[in-house]
Structure to design on (458 residues):
């Protein structure tokens, strides 16, 4: 009997609000001294009352809108009851049957990225996008476990898909796209090393019914792998689980419905606990928070505040700037780079340089300083970038002694920039290069300027 993977995803994204979800404590907890960003509310002390963070709710709705969800006009918070050391109240304030956002979708283009926006290979359905509070963090030291409650109460958006994935590659593509979307929105850094984005795949196998007269149905079990913090690890965990479950099913055993963790050292998933069902959490409405009503005008207002999203920007770059899918995809991966590219384009237009020429320059040129260290091209102003482009494409023979005199004059006249560069500021080098280029009206190879700067400064 052959089996086919059935994979769903739960992704938790921490929002970068200034304060926590239900209290006024700072949400900027990473790297801070343990238990210094706490108060009676996020410590769950008796008699305290939670007050919802309006900005967090608005950002949750914007995430839902970016994922093509329906935004519910009526929503509420619920208590999710379970006992675990990192949950000080003995319950988590979350959402159960009336979340803020439901029934969305994301399109996948496939690994080759040959599809134009709107020509998606597959649609992944989003079941829900809801708001909850994060838990504390357990720190294991030898035989002891310590708890840091700085993270407790930080706003957390949970994004739940339907079990529409069939391969680990599809999962990774979706996750990269989701990370890109929340970064474009500016609602989260989605830095997995800091725990801003945590991944939890649900994996099971069903009989491969292609060509068979068997009603397509979901398996009667699922295995959840909790709190994975990298794309590479989630791919490994899924591949391991597919193989493990395949062996069990072909041996006549049904895998246990359980929660497992990924052990990177052992390169395997390990049992953590039996997986709970919804009724195990004894959900009931949060009595201390009134239901939330969101009007149609509020929903419309939030949508109008959203920036241009990655797929729309990719399509526009292809159509407006006549770029290839490959070039446009590279330039729109990060919003800061896409925005800077468009600023450079405006400067390029003044010099009759096409967007395609600028794109080739950015993608193919290796930007290095006089120490040979690569730097981010977005640190250069559009004016300097175009001067750099012109200098590399309008090379002329310059006497080395004349170049040396020019470089020495620039260094002598800009001692502050020299000091800044020596202290590690890359933009200072760009300034010195720009000042030298100006003396030759842009008709000089920048690599020669860098070599001369290196010679004189050393």
């Amino acid at each position: 009997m052959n089996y086919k993977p059935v994979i769903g995803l739960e992704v938790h994204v921490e929002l970068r609000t200034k304060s926590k979800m239900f209290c006024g404590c700072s949400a900027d907890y990473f790297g801070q001294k343990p238990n210094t960003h706490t108060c009676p509310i996020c410590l769950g002390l008796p008699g305290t009352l939670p007050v919802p963070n309006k900005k967090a709710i608005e950002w949750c709705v914007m995430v839902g809108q970016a994922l093509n969800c329906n935004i519910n006009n009526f929503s509420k918070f619920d208590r999710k009851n379970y006992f675990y050391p990192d949950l000080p109240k003995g319950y988590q304030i979350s959402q159960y049957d009336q979340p803020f956002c439901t029934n969305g979708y994301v399109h996948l283009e496939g690994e080759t990225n040959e599809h134009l926006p709107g020509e998606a290979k597959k649609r992944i359905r989003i079941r829900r996008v809801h708001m909850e509070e994060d838990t504390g963090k357990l720190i294991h030291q030898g035989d002891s476990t310590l708890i840091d409650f700085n993270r407790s109460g930080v706003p957390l958006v949970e994004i739940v898909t339907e079990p529409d994935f069939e391969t680990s590659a599809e999962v990774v593509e979706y996750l990269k796209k989701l990370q890109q979307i929340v970064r474009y929105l500016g609602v989260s850094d989605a830095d997995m090393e800091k725990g801003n984005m945590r991944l939890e795949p649900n994996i099971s196998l069903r009989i491969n019914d292609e060509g068979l007269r068997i009603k397509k149905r979901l398996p009667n079990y699922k295995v959840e792998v909790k709190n994975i913090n990298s794309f590479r690890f989630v791919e490994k965990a899924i591949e391991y689980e597919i193989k493990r479950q395949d062996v069990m099913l072909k041996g006549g055993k049904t895998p246990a419905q359980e929660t497992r963790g990924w052990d990177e050292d052992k390169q395997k998933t390990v049992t953590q606990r039996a997986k709970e069902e919804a009724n195990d959490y004894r959900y009931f409405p949060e009595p201390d928070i009134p239901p939330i009503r969101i009007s149609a005008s509020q929903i419309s207002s939030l949508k109008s505040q959203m920036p241009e999203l990655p797929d729309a920007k990719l399509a526009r770059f292809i159509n407006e700037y006549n770029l290839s899918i490959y070039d446009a995809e590279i330039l729109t991966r990060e919003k800061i780079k896409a925005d800077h590219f468009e600023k450079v384009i405006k400067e390029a237009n003044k010099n009759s340089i096409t967007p395609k020429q600028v794109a080739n320059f950015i993608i193919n040129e290796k930007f290095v300083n006089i120490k040979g260290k690569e730097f981010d091209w977005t640190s250069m102003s559009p004016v300097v970038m175009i001067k750099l482009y012109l200098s590399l494409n309008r090379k002329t023979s310059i006497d080395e002694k004349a170049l040396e005199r020019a470089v020495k004059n620039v260094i002598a006249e800009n001692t502050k920039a020299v000091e800044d560069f020596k202290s590690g500021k890359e933009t200072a080098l760009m300034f010195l290069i720009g000042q030298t280029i100006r003396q030759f009206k842009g008709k000089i190879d920048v690599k020669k300027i860098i070599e001369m700067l290196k010679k004189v400064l050393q």
Notes: The mean pLDDT is 89. Residues 310-457 form one domain. The CA atoms of residues 59 and 254 lie 41 Å apart. The longest strand covers residues 3-14.
